[in-house]
Amino acid sequence: MTGMALSDTVVITATSEGKSGSARLAVVIDLTGEWNFTEQLSGRHQQRALTCSDTGSYLFTQSGADIGGTTAQIGTCVGSLTGRDNTQWPTPLADGRLSSTRVSFRNDPGCLYEGDVTGPPAARLSGTVSCASFQDTTSGTWEAVLGGAPVASITVRWDVQTVVGGVVQLIAVPRDAAGHVLSRAVAWSTDDPSVATVSEGGLVAARTPGSARIAATSEGQSGSAAVTADLISFSSISAGLHYSCAVTPAGAAYCWGWGGDGQLGTGFRTPVRAPRASLQTPLAVAGGRTFATVTAGWGRSCGVTTTGEAYCWGDDSYGQLGDGSRTSSLVPVPVTGGQQFASVTLGAYHACGVTTTNAAYCWGVNSQSQLGDGSRTFSPSPVLVAGDLLFQSVRAGSSHTCGVTIAEVAYCWGYNLDGQVGDGTSAYAVATPVAVAGDHSFVAVAAGWAHSCAMTPEGAAYCWGVSDRLGDGSGQDHPIPVPVAGGLSFATAGGALSAGQESSCALTPAGAAYCWGHNDIGGLGDGSTTGRSKPVQVTGGLSFATISVGSFHTCGVTTGAVAFCWGDNTSGQLGATTAQSCSYSGLAVPCALTPIQVTGTVQPGATARVPGRDTRVPERDPSVLLQRLGPDFPNPTVIDRAPRR
Predict the structure, then answer these.
(1) Which helix (H) or strand (E) holds 564?
(2) Quick one: DSSP state of residue 577?
């Protein structure tokens, strides 16, 4: 090897006829070039065991003792909670340094590599690696050999169906004949620029309805993917944790925002370092099914078809998909049991549904009895909620569940330390449905993180649980229903009442939206970041048919079938890139303080690229939730693809 970096010196001595001489020579190492690597890691992901095996390439650049360049990899992990893809297209290396025969550098997801340079005759790097992120802590060993094999194949990920005006990030993965991922430049092209154009970085812009094929070429090899663009409107919408989903009048389901757990249902996961412009674009849920409703949750989604079949997709670490396994899925899988459902609702780690015969079933985590079957045993398949009650609707909160019977009585069960069950107590967990106190008649119910709300037949709203989300203006916790302040009369139709992680919203009969609760990132839609203990009207003069409150953002569909969202936009969950920013946990995060239309397009003056890897707002410390889940929280044993960084 030759080059610029001084790594060490050696003394060379020559002897002849009793005479000798010596010289001190500089040994120079140059790492410039492509290196094929393998690595083995183990550690923890969200407090669960995780092991990973990766292969890929480093493309080093060097100036003196400073190392730079890029890395690309593909890998699989065992024991993860989320099952996100470990593949990365070229991402930058940082803090690279060659000192003597020791090398160190970091990759963009936050792993530190340290090791030795050995050779000749065979150039080799080897050492240790340690990674730490918001969710993962792993460490292990790595080694690399000088590569440079030609490109043998290229895979372009993925075939996508999106909306006109949206943008989608495609990834080209070059490999050599042995299957190593290579850090090679590719040239992008489109066979129909009138339908879709593509940038030099693989960012596709959908221009008009139709289909186009996008190709990537390197060293005479090429691969391609199909992009289909449609004009769409929406009839219903659901806001989840950093993403959203909606259904068109024809029953097609679309999702957008963060999809690292497969919750978008597109058949692929959100790429690492994906441009925000691609995150905000609605993408079609795979399978071509006709959905009546789709619900967005925490890392997973569920939908009910027009013929009553329930499907779920995304993270299945604790049986939340209801298919009888704990295997995460990038596409919809049927909920087992053969029931015909009218609706499905999602909590943090459980799900519930109401059948067409008004029976309630739940599945997933049950450590706080949120399944309502009288036990605390988790179930990856639907179990019947106890009590022989006939429900017209059920809504899952974080770790509790509420429902309204056909007799207009509200029942709740599950976690109750904050009084969200509404029976007047603060028992840790309520094992089976109990009637909400107060002898009210209710026709609709909503369950949030630590509170619940319900609507009377006359349109009066009541809430109970944690103080700052109840809308009564008192600032006090209430374990029994209290009337929402303001004397407003709300609509009683389905979709007119919603409770999220930190706020609630309801619609009047005329379609005006009112919200109350926390407002750090503009989730109330009143143009401010001021929390409200009483209802405040969403600005804009829009008339909504449905509304949905997520973790930090809110969405609604107008009576004209147009979708709007507002609040947190760190993952593109609002469906359009925004120029505003809000302060949250000491960070400036993208947001919208008033409703913006879901278009998939970039607004003037907005940033188009996500800074760094993790596009999400820092959440509450996940250990708090895991502590609440308790020691009987089941340990996943499935093999799945997952992140490790």
Answers:
(1) strand 563-568
(2) B
CB-CB contact of 202 with 170 (8 Å):
yes
The four Cα atoms 391, 392, 396, 402 give a dihedral, to 10 degrees, of -60
88-99/171-175 β-pairing: unpaired
Tokens of 67: 């190392």
Contact 484, 471 (CB under 8 A): yes
Taking 70 as the threshold, does the pLDDT of residue 216 lie above it? yes
Name the nearest CA neighbour of 577 among 201, 234, 281: 281
Q: Which two tokens stand for residue 48?
A: 């669960």
The structure's pTM equals 0.81
357, amino acid identity:
T
236: nearest Cα among 576, 558, 568, 594: 558
Query: Residue 98: what are its φ and ψ, rounded to 5°?
Result: -110, 120
Token pair for 313: 């997709």
Nearest to 536 by CA among 545, 548, 549, 523: 523
- Listing DSSP states for 8-62 in one string gives EEEEEEEEETTEEEEEEEEEEE---EEEEEEEEEEEEETTEEEEEEEEEEEEEEE
DSSP per-residue codes, 142-193: EEEEE--PPP-EEEEE--EEEETT-EEE-EEEEE-TT--B-----EEEES-T
Gap between the Cα atoms of 24 and 293, Å rounded: 77
Task: For CA atoms 617, 623, 628, 629, give the dihedral sign.
Answer: positive
Q: How many angstroms separate the CA atoms of 609 and 282, rounded?
A: 17
Contact partners, residue 388, CB within 8 Å, separation at least 6 = none
* Rounded-to-10 torsion of CA 403, 408, 409, 414: 0
Sheet holding 461-465, edge to edge: 444-447, 451-455, 461-465, 478-483
Q: How confident is the model at residue 531 (pLDDT cuts 50, 70, 90)?
A: very high
d(CA 125, CA 105): 12
Domains observed in the chain:
5-146 (2.40.128), 153-230 (2.60.40.1080)
What 8-state DSSP symbol labels residue 17?
T
Confidence of residue 635 (pLDDT cuts 50, 70, 90): very low
Report residue 84 as tokens: 């996100």
Neighbouring C-beta atoms of residue 40, cutoff 10 Å: 15
For β-strands 236-239 and 341-346, DSSP reports them as unpaired
Q: What tokens does 85 get?
A: 């893809």
511 exposure class (CB count in 10 Å sphere: 0-12, 13-18, 19+): middle
